[in-house]
Every structure is written in C-alpha cells, then in structure tokens.
Specification:
globular, mainly beta, 5-stranded mixed beta sheet, Jelly Rolls, 4% helix
Length: 313
Amino acid sequence: MKAKIIMGMILGSSLACAQPEMRSHDVQMECKNASQKITGEINGNRIVDYIVDVCGPQKAAVSLESANKSVNFNIMAPGAMKALFNSSVEGLSYKGKLKDSGKYQIRLYMMRNAANDPTEHDYVLNIKLKDKDGAAKEGGEGKDKDKDKDKDKEKDKSGDKKKGKVHFDQKKNKNGIHFHAVQTGHTLTITPSGLANDNHPMEREIKGKVIRLDATDLNNDGSPEVIVVSKTDERQYIYAYATNKKKSLSELYMPPIEQFPGHKETYGGGDRYIISIDAVTVSYPNKKMGGAANQFKSVKFGIKAGEAAPKGE
C-alpha cells in the first residue's frame, strides 16, 4: 500500500512521493533484564517499527534473521534524527550500550532493490536488554500479524503497558472510516476502524498537548486523511495520516516549517495551522518584521492528483 506525502512540498518538491505502509508495535517486555523473540512478515511496500522502552544506561543486543537478504533494520535513539545502528552497513546483529533512557525505535525495512516486492518475507527479531551486571531474562514470543491484535489489547488492559495522564481523547469519522485519537503523556495513539486490510493502532511521540483532531479528504479521492494538531508555549505541531485507498493507515511526514524554501530567516515560532476542505495552511509571525500581528507569512498545501502540491504563499 502506498501513500503520498502531503508535506513533501516543504522541501521544495512538487513531485509525487510514495510512502510505504507503516506499522508500529510496542514491545511488551520489562525495561531491564529481559528478552523478546518476535516473528513477523514484511514486504517491499511495508515498514515495521518496534518501540522498546529502555531504562538506560544499559546493554542491549538486537539481531535479525530472514531468508531474504534485503530485510534490514535500523535503531534510533529517542528524539534522534540519525540511526545509531544500520544493519545494511554494520551487519544483522547489534551489541552495545544504550546511554539514554526512553523509547527506542527498531525499524525493519527492505532495501531499495526490493522496494516494490509484494511478496511476504518471514523474519525473526531478537531483542535483549540487561543491566550492566545482569543477564537477560527470557521473555515470550510474539507475532505482529493482524490476528494478534486481540492479544495486544489484553496486555494493555492487564496493565502491562504503563500509561500516564490522558490529555486528549476524541473520535472523528470520514467517508466510512473512523479514527480514535488519544494522547497519553507524550504518546499519541491513532486507532482506525473500517479499513479493509489493517486497523492496527499507530503510536508516536509528540510535542505539547493535542488541541485538535480533523478527518478530511484533501484530494477528494474518497480515502480520508486524519490530522492532529498539538501545541506548546512556542508553536503548534501537525501530525497527519493517510488511509491508502481505505486499506491501511500510514503516517505522512512533515519536516519542520523552517525547512521551507524562503522561510528559514523569517520563521521564529508562533505558527498556526488552518485545516480546510482541500488544503492545510501554515502561518506564522514574520520575525524579520518584528513578529507584528499583521505581518504573517503562510504556506498553503494539499494533495492534488496524488502529488504533494504547493498551492502558493
């Protein structure tokens, strides 16, 4: 399944950008001295993320097994923009010390040569966490296929997954697809229903507190997008998801607004998002003009014929 990145125009590109189907799973294991063996399937149009809570600093080992040599993984530290480990360069086994606590991302993907391969390929992902002086305790085995969703829900209900205060809980629907957005602590969870292939929840870390949830259809193709806006004292943030012809949910990537061509020198925070029927408009006070209330810069963007297309400033 593919989705078009509606935010690609921020980088000055008006070309269509295909994004693979994204899946995200929380790994149910103790923060320290634990191990988990996960089995699943992946194809060239899918990226699978495993989110692991690390108490840090602590030792970790991650290994991947698959008959297809194009299956690889990266490891990302919390908030990092660059992978701390890339198996396509460093091999299919990682051993090292994770310095920071927080949610680490293990991302499974297929290499570019297999990017359009629709065949499902089996894999086994082994994760071990241990203290400086401790050994990992054996965990369970899990499958990330659709049939295991009920098991994940039961774990959540039993309290295996620790959650903080709920800041936002709202539902929207569009074109027969329903979306349930919940912010717990700094985690946003989007749970769809009504999609043909995959209604698995998607989770990600966000900044600030959610202030708005919208379900829309920016390019009027019948397959809706869901958009979430959060706010800090300095600015707003937007998180968007496409429904891929009503088959599955994929996150749409948006770089920071200061990466817009011509906006690096004028941007200083204070941005606001206006969501209309066919576009999203970003506006902010022009810091070159002293941030006066009547001196705003804005960019309007949307999806047009499957492309990331600027509408003009």
